[in-house]
């Protein structure tokens, strides 16, 4: 993974627009957040291999970045993205790594399912 | 609290959901069993796919992490001389959403195949992570369904903040200092997950009487009993 270059990521997001893609979206503060701090309200969401098509996508912000995808009748977005890269199957991986190096958010897509 | 001798077992079955769960709570005890050449089977239910420690700058991605953790698991298992590692192929952070009957059957099949005299898992209700809880419930249900005289002993790991308050102190405390090096080797094998803690530990263990020192010199279990303390519900 490399630090996000917004122009580069915009180009990559454009590339998948209009295609049927498989999407991974996750946000997490970890399963132990409320164990270490009982006042912490733990929340997260996870979708793996959602099949969808977006009309266009956009990266916004000065870093950490936000990426939004406009669907025909809806939206997908993620906030806090810091890094991007590819897996061995050519999926586009975007992730937000916090100051301790822990993943906080991931938005990933490709034309084949994730394993 | 006094320590006790580890009993001689026929076969030990360890059932935990994540690579590294065995290193933290159980690796010293496992090393003691394997030193005696007692067969130990470790059923590790997932590959810890949802681990969050990926580094910044990142050394892994969400997609590459499972392979890294699989390699770490194999290394850790070698350190504590487990001969029989079963990777059960479930996915991290999904266990509580799996079909409960399927989960229980997985445990029943393992027990029927291996006929263990001791099963080690988490304590239901007091093991914090939803995967730990789901694993514990499935194991308890599988053991509970057996004829009473055929049930293996069930030793559980608990670490929720309210554990002592609600179910008391562990009834089992093992001194594992003579296998400390093996436990550390298992911890180090899971370096992607443990590097932060190991740094803390290096300074902490030296401190006589510290909580961290205790955690790495002793291992604790709560014996699960099928009486009024058994709060695991039947599958609906």
TrEMBL record, chain A:
Pfam families from the UniProt entry: DUF1806 (PF08830)
Superkingdom classification of source: Bacteria
Protein name: DUF1806 domain-containing protein
Species: Domibacillus mangrovi
